[in-house]
Design goal:
There is one protein chain. Helix content is about 75%, strand content about 0%. With about 280 residues, it is mostly helical. The protein has one domain. It is elongated, with a radius of gyration of 27 Å.
Length: about 280
């Protein structure tokens, strides 16, 4: 929503102020638009492999959706971890083997459909719970393994933002390319009347205008939003990591989830009292 509002403000500021003293029809040079768009698409295709192209195209629509990583989502995450670790505390590690192997049928995990339906989150949780069930763990080594896995995941999640940012950086140069082609065309018509030459020169300069507006007014905001989405997606794993490591180190579930709560950003972090009351309310159901 805010992306659309921002676009409206940008276009109103650029085109609205120009319309006060100029004709908007002078900016309508279809060949310039076709050339700019073609160059941008060509750059995107030429500079990325098919996996990144598909990933970027799939990621862009997500910026128009609200974030699922709300305070309520994180409370669900911490509550789920509290329940599963509480079961381990009371009944032993082997008691969660069935939950780990089949999360969809788990009495605990099935209470949290938003988490169960996120394949990546559930895979991360169950993989490390499976390691806990499997035998003795060296917490330092597990933390190192988590860091390697998360680094790989975050790199992949951040790739669309980097790709779109690179496109934004290239767009002004493509605008210059189109403008130069227009100037070359003008130089081939130097015998034409001044009015005709003026129109041709103006059309050539539209290429530069389009390249800069496309880069900083249209594409760069998309890149920034993709980067923000990638950061949001990374926080949940950091939270889960801290809870599981605290549990592996011997802390009680009540303390372990506090490690995870502290790892959250301030805007979505529930207070200690909020989380405690929520856990009590769910326990009473």
């Amino acid at each position: 929503m805010f992306l659309i509002i921002g676009y409206v403000i940008i276009l109103a500021a650029a085109l609205g102020t120009y319309a006060v003293h100029g004709s908007l029809l002078a900016l309508w040079v279809p060949t310039e638009y076709i050339a700019i768009i073609g160059l941008v698409i060509g750059y995107f295709v030429a500079s990325n492999d098919i996996k990144i192209i598909k990933g970027t195209i799939a990621a862009v629509p997500g910026i128009l959706k609200g974030s699922k990583f709300t305070k309520a989502f994180y409370i669900d995450t911490l509550a789920m971890l509290f329940e599963i670790l509480g079961k381990v505390r009371k009944e032993g590690l082997m008691s969660i083997e069935g939950d780990v192997e089949n999360p969809d049928a788990s009495p605990i995990f099935s209470k949290y459909p938003n988490l169960v339906h996120d394949h990546h989150i559930m895979e991360f949780v169950t993989d490390y719970l499976r390691m806990m069930v499997g035998g003795n763990l060296n917490t330092v080594e597990i933390e190192s393994l988590m860091d390697v896995e998360l680094e790989s995941h975050h790199h992949e999640a951040a790739e669309p933002g980097h790709v779109v940012s690179a496109i934004a950086g290239a767009a002004p140069a493509f605008g210059i390319v189109v403008a130069v082609m227009g100037v070359v065309n003008v130089m081939g018509s130097v015998g034409s009347p001044p009015a005709v030459l003026g129109k041709m020169i103006g059309g050539a300069l539209v290429g530069t205008f389009l390249g800069i507006l496309l880069a900083y007014g249209i594409v760069e905001p998309i890149a920034k939003l993709l980067e923000q989405k990638a950061h949001e997606g990374a926080t949940i794993y950091k939270c889960i990591k801290m809870v599981l490591l605290a549990s592996m180190s011997g802390y009680a579930p009540q303390v372990a989830i506090e490690f995870g709560r502290k790892a959250l950003d301030a805007g979505v972090r529930p207070s200690f009292r909020e989380l405690e009351e929520e856990l009590k309310a769910r326990k009473g159901k």
